[in-house]
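Run folding on both entries below.
>entry_1
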Amino acid sequence: MRILVTGGCGFIGSNFIRYILEHYKPASVSNVDVLTYAGNMANLDGVVEEHGDRYEFFKADIANADQMDALMTEHRFYAIVNFAAESHVDRSINSPQNFIHTNVVGTSVLLDCARRHGVQRFVQISTDEVYGSLGETGRFTEQSPLEPSSPYSASKTGADLLALACHKTFGQDVVVTRCSNNYGPYQFPEKLIPLMIIKAMRDEPLPVYGDGRNVRDWIHVEDHCAGIIAALFEGKAGTVYNFGGNSEMVNIDVVKLILDKLGKSHSLISYVTDRLGHDRRYAIDSSFAERELNWKPLHNFKEGLESTSDWYLNNKGWWEALLERAGRY
């Protein structure tokens, strides 16, 4: 059984490839990634040595129909798991066209190619940001209205709706997963947790948007990967599954936990002008996925944050090389 993973050199995609190859021995993975700034071949160091011909990599753009057709002609894939996406909200505000190209056009191309080539299942990896912002109470369910606030979340909403429309129109076997904020190893340093860890390690100011009271529900990337695999093999076609970590935290409290873990002063915190369209609170209700897929998050957030901090402490060469390549020095 061969699976096509798109965006497999990114944070979640690379963790997923490692996870499925380790836990599902019959599975083989083809990874297609165009290698933008956040796609890092080093995220998969050692995978070929450990898993041999069960893993292969192709550099290609998911929005290029000729490249995707050629790949699906070469291999018969059981499923496509679509992680490929531009994902940083700030970048979407500055350059929304890139997000439309990858997240909307790319998803459309993949869906069309999958249908032509008889791919049995298509898993669209999405985000809780498609739901917009919550008040002080309540959680997002799979029935919550879609109210994206940024070009990034709007592009992901469009991709989700395209995928679900292909199920309704063509009978295509599509599953959509939406998760809360991920954390863990191999995350690009522009995201909150690795950014704060690295800046704290270097005794640099830690920029916190607005009043720092925005709330996010954090899920360890391994728990998310386990949920995706459950949806891949057990999910019902045409269905959306939410995955959350049951770990709501105020952003400023996350930053303070990181500083305390690293033995750094809270005086490094620097409040900056708030992000445009900054959603106030996200929280995911995962009860449907827990019930239907027999899945639940296993990581405690504070322990997971400590192990993540340790990973960045012990892998300085990884993130220094990534920052240098991205022109951040």
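>entry_2
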Amino acid sequence: MADEVGTELVVRTGADGSFSLWSAAFQEGFHSGRGALREARETFLAPSRLERFPPGSLVRVVEVCAGTGGNVALLLEACAARGLTLEWWGLELDRRPLALALASEAFRRPWQPSTLTALSELLARGHWHGEGATARLLWGDARQTMRDLPRALPGPVDLVWHDAFSPRRCPQLWTLEHLQATTAPLAPEGRWISYSAAAAVRDSLRQLGLHLVALEVAAPGEHPTGRTLWSGGTVASPSPLASDSPAGDRPAAQSLWRELSLMEREHLRSAAGEPYRDPDGTDDAATILARRSQAQRAALASGARGCSGAWRRRWGVERR
């Protein structure tokens, strides 16, 4: 279901009935087909494991590309329910997604009035302070605001939620340099979390010295290569991530993450794993993509990386 609201943004309804948008400029939706709420819960909130913070703890979160505000809305209510104090910094270029969301009854329906007040204040003023939470929304190119943010941070960050458009559509926010900037503030046990399983992103994180696991978000059959081989995202941390053993009544089939499969590890060593680069943090998408293509050709010629086509044939993976 979709209703056009302008030449660049289209309102969509996800499979879970939640509000979402599609960008004509990027030719991509803001959320997966699962729906915005389900994606926020499964991809970002669940692997954050807020239960590891005792009640009364301070949790610092940076969100790259706050978009419609659904992620921070969920985070505000989840932290309040657990008695946690939240400090949140959101990075966003475009004011329209949050404005469109707040104007939509479908978006507003799931959230508490205090949460909607927080989002409205963020849109109008760029900051909000409530009982047990503060939030700041920094407008502009995330490459620049992320580089400036550490000076404003009062301490290490517990979570980074990276929710930009996909690397092939918006490589500016997935370069080795930008990923270094977004992960540098992480506390030793902090977690960088994203829906992306792209080899270039994962190998960049690996080169930055982070430990990686694959998110188990998709249900069986939701990816053509099968659940045991592929994943629904990535979690990275300066410290090794403990095995996600089932807790309570959660069966093993519902574990949140696993080690990267052999298929995924081989993917990192292929040309697909060549990082996006943007040394000055000012290049446009076309320049970044062209630079990566040149680096891929050089890596193939030298034998530093294998052929992505051979990797796809070996594992029966269709080009996406």
